[in-house]
Design a protein that fits this description.
Layout: E1 4-12, E2 18-27, E3 32-36, H1 43-51, E4 58-63, E5 66-67, E6 78-81, H2 93-103, H3 108-122, H4 137-149, E7 155-159, H5 167-184, E8 187-192, H6 195-201, E9 204-209, E10 212-217, H7 219-224, H8 229-234, E11 241-247, E12 253-255, E13 258-260, E14 270-276, E15 281-283, E16 291-301, E17 306-311, E18 336-341, E19 352-357, E20 363-366, E21 372-374
Parallel strand pairs: 3-8, 3-9, 6-7, 7-8
Antiparallel strand pairs: 1-2, 1-4, 4-5, 9-10, 11-12, 11-14, 12-13, 14-20, 15-19, 16-17, 16-19, 17-18, 20-21
Helix pairs in contact: 2-3, 2-4, 3-4
Length: 375
């Protein structure tokens, strides 16, 4: 096993597209780190540079103690798991899993033993004689994982390996890969656009946008302490409510005509973006200086809870990346607010609900730059 390090790494394609811009990131020995971000954020390009499938335009990439910029992919001692599985259709599962070892001239008995042990660990021993076309999506994904595991590499690289699976199987495979990492302890760099996948699997999560690293931290700290509006809106499902507001001279938050008393005072006065997570509110009957009155647009019943879609007086904010468009903080959606409430709360559309805001969990961001003020 070994650490992976990016030192001021950039990638500029011949047409001038800057896919990765000055990336500094270190994945510790044995760590499971997830690169997450929207389409075009540079996460897959970063992974492909580690694999040697793309050359870095600038900066150094290290695996263990070696700088590998000029090392051939086959000599980097990494194993990659692709979105498309990349199995040889004319080979059996047994032959697919042992192919890389045969190319390395490993003895036949050792190959048979390593493939057998790995297949047993993955629960696919009875599938060894089959060909990929006779397997389900989940079984093919296990074979692809097995082919990587038998090599005992210094690091695993995984490029959106679950995106072709249905929702139920994706949840199962998330847990399976996390458990495998716990057992094997191999350094893993995992790429996904799915923030739920990132949050549930990673020891650390690195959020990327437009080729730049926005924030890297543990999943919980990313959720509780986002560094800017983009990370706040990207991490969490449903997304954090981001509303245009104002900090008054007396320190109160103004959201339209409604005013809230913050739990912590800030020296900032003027326009802000206020972040409130859907789960940071609770229904109440009385008014107060921590209560919002909002009109119900829609109630989504999810069984364990209800998502209330509400109309807010304060304009909601979306970054351009949230809409998959170019742009900054000025792209506004509808004046919407989402609240996660208990299943027995089912107000009719058009009615008004009162929600107590946990003011200790309110985030404030600069209105122009989107950087955090208070978190």
């Amino acid at each position: 096993m070994a650490q992976i390090a990016f030192e001021d790494v950039s990638k500029v394609f011949p047409d001038g597209t800057r896919a990765v811009d000055g990336l500094d990131l270190e994945i510790a020995d044995g760590e499971f780190t997830v690169l997450v971000g929207p389409s075009g954020s540079g996460k897959s390009t970063a992974l492909r540079m580690v694999a040697g499938l793309e050359d870095a335009t600038h900066g150094a990439i290290s695996i263990g103690s070696r700088v590998v910029n000029d090392v051939a992919p086959k000599d980097r001692d990494i194993a990659m798991v692709f979105q498309s599985y990349a199995l040889y259709p004319h080979m059996s599962v047994d032959d697919n899993m042992g192919f890389a070892l045969r190319m390395q001239k490993v003895e036949r008995e050792s190959i048979r033993s390593r493939v057998g042990r790995t297949a047993a660990r993955l629960g696919i021993r009875e599938l060894l004689a089959r060909r990929p076309r006779a397997l389900s999506g989940g079984q093919r994904q296990r074979v692809a994982l097995g082919r990587a595991i038998v090599r005992s590499p210094e690091a695993f690289l995984m490029d959106e390996p679950l995106s072709n699976l249905d929702a139920k199987l994706r949840v199962e495979m998330r847990a399976y890969i996390a458990r495998l990492h716990h057992e094997l302890g191999t350094t893993t760099l995992y790429v996904t656009h799915d923030q739920t996948e990132a949050m549930t699997m990673g020891d650390r999560v690195a959020v990327m946008r437009d080729g730049r690293l926005e924030q890297v931290d543990s999943p919980q700290r990313l959720y509780e302490h986002p560094a800017n509006v983009f990370v706040a809106g990207f991490i969490g499902s449903p997304a954090m409510n981001l509303l245009r507001g104002r900090v008054a001279e007396d320190g109160r938050l103004e959201l339209g005509t409604q005013r809230l008393r913050p739990a912590r005072r800030t020296t900032h006065v003027g326009d802000v973006v206020v972040g409130i997570r859907p789960e940071a509110v609770s229904p109440v009957g009385e008014l107060g200086d921590d209560v919002l009155e909002l009109r119900v647009v829609l109630a989504e019943m999810l069984g364990s809870d209800v998502l209330l879609h509400l109309h807010s007086e304060a304009p909601s904010v979306l970054t351009g990346d949230m809409l998959d468009l170019a742009g900054e903080l000025d792209v506004s959606g509808e004046d919407r607010f989402i609240a996660r409430v208990p299943p027995d709360v089912r107000p009719a559309p058009g009615s008004v609900v009162r929600l107590r805001v946990d003011m200790s969990r309110v985030h404030l961001f600069e209105a122009g730059s989107g950087r955090v003020i208070l978190r």
